[in-house]
Amino acid sequence: MVTRCPLVLQLRRIDVPENEQDQEYAEFLHRKGEKFTNFNQVRQEIVAQTDRITGNKKGVSEKAISLIIYSPKVVDLTLVDLPGVTKIPVQD
After folding, report:
1. Contact yes or no for 49/30 (Cβ under 8 A)
2. How far apart are CA 9 and CA 49, in angstroms?
3. Are 70 and 24 in contact (CB under 8 A)?
4. What is the pLDDT of residues 39-74, one digit of tens each?
5. Cys staple from 26: which of 36, 45, 48, 79, with CB 3.0 to 4.6 Å?
């Protein structure tokens, strides 16, 4: 199972000058004020925060991770990715 806690993903459109179109960045609610411009690091932080919330035994939690992505290339949209249902019970 990949998603072990809810992920609240907000896409926010920002206006930037033509010469700065690559100014996309992300912020996590649990790391307020810190901007992530490398989206591989965003993925790594989602995995790390999931492990901090649920532990390393594949547990599931109702506590959500909140992520906001700011970009001139998106529309304003909020998505919620919930943990799925499994056929095989896992520890915790």
Report:
1. yes
2. 14
3. yes
4. 999 999 999 999 999 887 778 889 999 999 999 999
5. 36
